[in-house]
Records
---
Amino acid sequence: MTKTFGGWHLCPICRKPVDNNASKCPHCDTPNDESYHEYWSDKASELSKGRGKRESTRKTMSLVVIVLLLLVCWALIVSLITITNRLSEAKSRVRSWADDYNALVQEYSVARNVTQALREQGAINVDSIEITRDIEVIRYVEKPVYPQRFNDPDIARDWVLSHTLPVVIIADGWSDLTNIADPRYDCDDYADDYESLALSAGISLWQAPVTDGQIWGVKVSNVTGNHVGLWTKINGTFYYVEPQPVDSEWRFVELMRAD
């Protein structure tokens, strides 16, 4: 509906005042008809709504563009900072290389001046000089191998049974025997030699006193009186090792469990 003001109204096309009794708008020749006015009023309203939507879309797109521009600027700033740091590191390395080079040139210059002075004095007669620097020498020392313990009683038993000392014959006054050993070679000498044999194989054995064939109440030998044998510990269990070449029954005997 066209809005009227007293005896005139606004033209829906040019929005200028028109007399209500005029047949058409004197400004744009729009017919002064009520239905025509309503039609163009509706059109104007639709155009206004469309203009509002376009304005809203344009504002949204502008905001998106601004956000994208900010992101691009942030990425450029980060890249610029990274490049600046890399250039600073490279500059420091180049400066260090330049210092080393200048030091080397200075050393060469000093050496050349000294050589020239000595040549002029007749102290030396050389055609060239070689500049060398001290080199750090690293010496590797072989780490000593310490004796180890057995980790398996079966392996220990096999090793003991397969490593036997030779029998030493003790005989005084037997003139028909040759290679007679010193009569003083007895059980503790066997223990010393067998302990040395084990150490040469990287195995630890320790000497143990035996009384009347027993140690810690366990029978380990048929020898009466005082005797010397060896012992070892495997996985919390103590074992007796007889160093003398006797029956295999007494060569390797379990004594006790520590736990």
---
Amino acid sequence: MKNFMTLSKAECLEVSEQLQENAKGKYKDALLLADNGSYGSAIFNMILSMEEQMKAIIIFFDGNGFRFRQKVKGIKKLFTDHQLRYLLGFFLSVIDLVAPDLERKLDEFRTNPEKFLSVNPKDPAFQEMMRLWVVDKIKALAAKAEWFSSIKNIREEGIYVDVKGSFSSPMDKSKEEFEQVKKQVDGLRKIIDSLIVGELLPEDPLWGSIQGIKKQFIEEGWYEKLSKEVKKISTDDQYLPFKKITGGLIFMAEELSSEIPFNEERELNEG
């Protein structure tokens, strides 16, 4: 029987396009619902849009010669289980966090390459700036992990009336809550839309890079490593992976934040 796991490469490209179109449709529905003040249903559709894009990206890559469905044990759950989609969304959101800064640095390099290349990586002021940048990004990533850990509840609260200690109704959802979800989804949409470009051909700029990455996945055992991670997160506690991620990131941020700044450390050593 035909399903996501049995699609051919050609069918993957077709289905990934359909998934993208459905994601765009759900996104537009969410905006219309929000305009009419139905923020609970808007939140639900916004999250559905994101979930469809998570399926689309895996199908798209397999359509371009990757072998996630054949090589990553447990990947089938991505098409039936929300948890794997949310984890994939979280890891893709890392790109959303650092991409703007990378783009700015590339612009600086194009504008003034001499100034860009003159930066001394051993300069204490530069090292301190980089430390603060890393701390800031780690904290932002921990906040994203915290948000993704609650996304299943956010999704269900958008459509169901429930009582879990307190009364919850989709009708009580606010514009602010919708905008928070939209902000997260918008960042992921930008990344996914830039990756899903149809069938990659030898004349495409990304062709060489993609071929190299495919080779690395095989030679460096990335499929096997992903299989182990998927197995780890296949747990009854749907929040456990995010709890571990959030805890680890917060610990890293606290450790880096408590370090003596490089310039102060130099002064102490010189004294």
